[in-house]
């Protein structure tokens, strides 16, 4: 039988359940205050440390997180009240060309092909800034989504070509970027390119593509009378 009035106040109303994080999603937060672990399985961290929260579901009160090379539990109410969440940290690293932070995010499990509010991937922003080392790092992922289009239909090749980033264009083409994809205005990467070297690179890529298709056919196979 439930006892009433034993606490001298209204019974605690449970908070609405949090939506389950998307599979593979890692929340990145920056600690605003120091926290000292109270038990061996908890995680200690300092003010300003980056925390990579990768399990909010197993225990709603204690989330699993990484800080540097250490992994442990942190109180969820502490995360909510004493940290600042970083939106799309990998996108920000790619946009700024911060290879060290980009690698750390990838190492800690942040999705390399996640989308921001514009529908763009980190590879798009690395290509936008002409950050070749970040582009190469993202292209090394198992599924780099090299031809992913954002909300305006642009691929990484579109933006690299339009901004004249020749080395990025060359790298994207070698990794399978399709120069024939139009954006929502019907423009291909070649049509957006202004740099002569970029234009030539895309044209050569198209020429090689046509040659490889032609090479699949042997004229001797079609030289008899039945044709």
Automatic annotation (TrEMBL):
GO CC annotation:
cytoplasm
A Pfam family recorded for this sequence = Ank_5
Q: Which branch of life, at top level?
A: Eukaryota
Q: Does the keyword Glycosyltransferase apply?
A: no
Look up keyword Nucleotide-binding and say if it applies. no
Q: Which InterPro entries match?
A: Ankyrin_rpt (IPR002110), Ankyrin_rpt-contain_sf (IPR036770), SH3-like_dom_sf (IPR036028), SH3_domain (IPR001452)
Q: What is its main location?
A: cytoplasm
Output the SMART domains linked to this UniProt entry. Answer: ANK (SM00248), SH3 (SM00326)
Q: Name one GO biological process term.
A: vesicle-mediated transport
Where does the SH3 domain start and stop, copy by copy? Answer: 24-84
Query: Region labeled Disordered — which residues?
Result: 1-24
UniProt function note: Induces bone resorption, acting probably through a signaling cascade which results in the secretion of factor(s) enhancing osteoclast formation and activity.
Q: What is this protein called?
A: Osteoclast-stimulating factor 1
- Gene source species: Timema bartmani
